[in-house]
Structures are given as structure tokens and as C-alpha cells.
Amino acid sequence: MDYSAYQHLLVDKKEDGIVLLTINRPETLNSTNFRLHYELSRIWLDLAEDSEVRVAVITGAGRAFSAGGDFEVVEKSMGNLEVVAQTMREARDIVHNMINCDKPIISAINGVAVGAGLAVALLADISIASENARFTDGHTRLGVAAGDHAAVIWPLLVGMAKAKYYLLTCDMLDAKEAERIGLVSMVVPHEQLMPKAMEVARKLATGAQQAIRWTKHSLNQWLRMAAITSFDYSLALEMLGFFGPDVREGLRALQERRPPLFPSARTGT
């Protein structure tokens, strides 16, 4: 399998069939621009077809896992049906392709994880977070519905009460709280993050491959049921938000690092 076309994902094949994926836009805290968003939707298909790969580990370059959507993506999405339709297709593919990839995926969450980056971090089969990691969905703060992965995975991981709280408020979780409520598999000291992720990867890569893959496939039936009933609906509502006034104020507030003053909060609609 040729991975040379990937620009913002570094693909490093290790021994025992382990592949290390690194989200590589550290100058922007690994925010997802148009190209990276596409690559995150595609990589799981390529890994599934690669006979040399048994386990994938994904992490971020520098001090972040991924800081969410690039401001340029948000700006070009507002009121633009063509861009929104493409983003929607890729967001759908990220979720479905990670769920349907039969090979185990481990996320090594080295720092902040937001938006599309958070989707990848939490849809991984095993999520290992550094003590430095922080989490927020971020959608409602931008002024759009929590689409991406949220309706699929959050209620299953943390229960509906916690899911509603964090998805509606966009409060930030630190790694300790994320582990306590079950959002991530485990938390380790930062210097132990990659050694632990690779240790788990080796355990899976040297285990019974059909048994591991079929177990993942069976467990992910829960996610497929959520995807069928909730995900596409939530994603469509998120995309609809890019045609309203709140997202413009949400983006300006993020750029200016201030609390948003949403038009809908003044009108009540």
C-alpha cells in the first residue's frame, strides 16, 4: 500500500504489523484543514486493505492531538452548500470507516482534542490519554449542533446525563475527569504515553487476529445501531447550522478569544 499521497498524516510502519499515524500540523495544534479532514476519512480504508497492518496507533505531533476544525474551513463552509456537502460526506466517512475498519485502532492522546480530532480520539477502539490531555466537543460553542461522532459514542461511553452536560455546555474536561467518567480507556503520565500505546499495540498485533477483529466487529454493532439511528441525523443538523447567523458569531468569538454573543440567545430562536 502506497501512503505517499498523505500530506498531513505521517504513516510509519513498525514491526509486528503496527502502524503509527501522526497528525502532522503542529504549527496549528494539528487543526483539521480541508486536506487533513479528507485524509482522516480515507486512511482507515487504506489500512483495512493493507495486509501488512494489524494495528494502528494514532497520535498528534507536538503538544496537541488535534485542536479541531481550522478557522478557514469554518469560514468557507458558512452558507456554501458545496463545501458543506463535501465536509458532511467526509465527516460521515470518518465515523463509519473507523467503526468498520476490522483492525484495532489505538489513540494516543498527547494533548488537547477537539472537534474532528476528538472524533478520531474517541472512536478509536482503545483510547490512551496523557495526563496533559484535555477534551471538549466544541460544537455548540461554535454555534452548530454536536454532530461528528458525539451522538454515536458519548452516551455509550459516559451515559446520557454526562453526555448531555458536556455536549451542551462544551465545558473542558481534563484527563483525570475523562478517565473517571469513562470517556477514555486509561490515563498515563505524559512520558509514558507512547510506550504504553505501543505496548498495547504489540499485545494486539501478536494476538489471535481473527478473534480480535471479530470481537471488535461484534462490539461495534452497538455503534452501528447508534450510527443508523442518531449519527446521520446529528450530522445533518450540524451542517444546517452553517447556514445560520450563530456560527458567524461563534467563529468571531473564537478568533477574538472572547465569550460569544449568539443572535439566537437574544431572539430566543
Describe the structure in your own words.
This protein is an alpha/beta fold and 269 residues long. The chain has a single domain, classed as 2-enoyl-CoA Hydratase, Chain A, domain 1 (Alpha-Beta Complex), CATH 3.90.226.10. The protein has 13 helices and 10 strands. It has helices at 34-49, 71-77, 81-100, 115-123, 139-142, 150-158, 160-169, 175-181, 193-205, 209-219, 221-240, 246-256, 263-267, and strands at 9-13, 18-23, 55-60, 64-67, 105-109, 112-114, 126-130, 134-136, 173-174, 186-188. Helix 6 (150-158) crosses helix 11. 44% of the residues are buried.
Radius of gyration: 18 Å
The poorly predicted ranges are none
In angstroms, what separates the terminal alpha carbons? 50 Å
Total beta strands: 10
Class from helix and strand fractions = alpha/beta
Structurally, the number of domains stands at 1
Shape summary: globular
Total number of helical segments? 13
**Top CATH class:** Alpha Beta
SS strand fraction: 15-25%
Please give the largest β-sheet: 6 strands, mixed
